[in-house]
Known about the structure:
Chain A is α/β, with parallel strands linked by helices.
Amino acid sequence: MRESRTSRPPRAIDVAAAAGVSTATVSRAFNAPEKVLPEVRDKIFAVAAELGWLPNAAGAALASRRTWLAGVLIPTLDHDVFAAQVNALQARLSASGITVLIGCSNYDLDEAADQVRVMLARGIEALAVVGELQRPELFEMISARGVPYVVMYSHSPKSPHPCVGFDNQAAFSKLTRYLLDLGHRSFAVIHQPSSDNDRVLARLAGIRDALASEGLALRPQHVFEGQATFEFGRESLRKCLGGPGPHPTAIICGNDTLAIGALIEARAMGIDVPGALSITGFDDLPIAEFTSPPLTTMRVDNVAIGKAAADYLLNRLGQQPIVPRDAFEADLIVRGSTGPAGS
Amino acid sequence: MRESRTSRPPRAIDVAAAAGVSTATVSRAFNAPEKVLPEVRDKIFAVAAELGWLPNAAGAALASRRTWLAGVLIPTLDHDVFAAQVNALQARLSASGITVLIGCSNYDLDEAADQVRVMLARGIEALAVVGELQRPELFEMISARGVPYVVMYSHSPKSPHPCVGFDNQAAFSKLTRYLLDLGHRSFAVIHQPSSDNDRVLARLAGIRDALASEGLALRPQHVFEGQATFEFGRESLRKCLGGPGPHPTAIICGNDTLAIGALIEARAMGIDVPGALSITGFDDLPIAEFTSPPLTTMRVDNVAIGKAAADYLLNRLGQQPIVPRDAFEADLIVRGSTGPAGS
DNA sequence: TTGAAAGCGCTAACAC
DNA sequence: GTGTTAGCGCTTTCAA
């Protein structure tokens, strides 16, 4: 541990010298302990600790052609859903000695490709990426290098990529079908920015599909696209019900934040939910259970998705037989914010 | 871009050969473009793109003794506060070409030290760490290597470390003082696990200090420590008011999640807030504005903290004159969940 | 402005 | 079981 801040960090050769062995043995002591005599090994560990030696990862990577680095590309860390996935993925990989590089694209496809470029330059050996709507070059780069990857969170049946996630379109069809079964025939949608976002696009498609099966469609003036904030949810509900009729009896929101915003505004406007209006969310945030009325929404197990993505990559890295991933399910959680269509 | 997945990735020497220059010139073209003839440079860029060459970071790090890596150590990504800080810090550093390694300690000091060890082995050149309550070896390791660091989020006046954050103790004293000024004399506290957590410990000290200045103290049966969930907030409020008297007129919660849980339970129990009971939180979550009644809480600008931490480290790395950081403020946001002590 | 050559710190054959 | 040696892919003097 003694070492002045002026001198450079110790190297394997310093440990070797102090322990009276060669650098090869120092390396073995740490990477293949069983190949070193216990007493020699202990001596080396003691000396290494004494000197505060940490094996330089760049040197190791260069010599062994292994970086023990993986990457995960997400839109932003500022969203519970992605944070939960990354947290789980990282916990799993780090338990296997793999360091995770986290790249945030800020929902920008070019930034996403840039981040992957940087990660590849750093030598990631595997990659998890949220969303399959990416610049083609992104997948080309990783394929060219033979880096195993998995698309996380999204999962569409026709995807050419290995996926660990759920089918957004099917989930929103299921949700819409539930509302149709309650008798609703006039819908509004409040959703997040859809450009370059396959999840949002799939959700909208799911809604439209389910409606079309009943010969229904969304009126353009009943579709609101904007930032996923309480404020946008409120504002959209106000515009939606404030304008000239006909008015929807059910509002499908792209996520819980928008739905709670809508719920808050409905309350402020004195609208009876679910008597006069049904509202749904997506994500099942912890607070969804406690809004008034409690929010009908859908739940996805993001921790399980993160773990599964990590396991998939670990298998690919270990040349293990690859367990074909079945899609995750989004569960419908029916609470008080939805009810039969008003008369 | 053409390259079979069987062959190894191209190296600088391949680019050099194809461009008819030496590897030194390839290196210069990317790292000191002004030292290379424009036409030669363009040729190199074209060839590099054609070959899909990405400079191997391990090789570069070894030769240049620069990794362009920084680390950030947080308890967990699963918490808006830390996610926001990391997001901002990473955005800033990545704009300067620095890759950020994110380590999560899961609130465990030994894991924290381990994470830092791994980061140092990878060659981080700077480190931001949440919380100053750490194993001494953690600070020893980074000092021994002369790695600049900053304690993020926490800031105590007497800290021996460079800090970018706010004074938790002062913040909770201010909050408690506000309640005292409203006439409250009997308090309860619902807080997060305090072991090994300097922020929570400081918050409790802040409350106790302010109370002591009025000759008051917390009754042991009015202090609840547990996970920061809605459920623990609810359960604690129930226990607190369900037991034999005397009952507090004000409940200070360690964060908004606990406070909202308490608010939900108070509502369920038919207790008038703030008429019969005042409740406060901390963090000013977006939802805090919309609870009923809206939550009195404190706000800290976590994005600004993340940015400031990044700027501090950037300055240290650039040998810039170090701007002494002044502490951030936690602002009291008074809303409807607090009022004068009931009669 | 460019090239030659010597490493950066470590691992992996191959000998012993 | 351990040492010797030859790189891994890049940057950086130093010359030219």
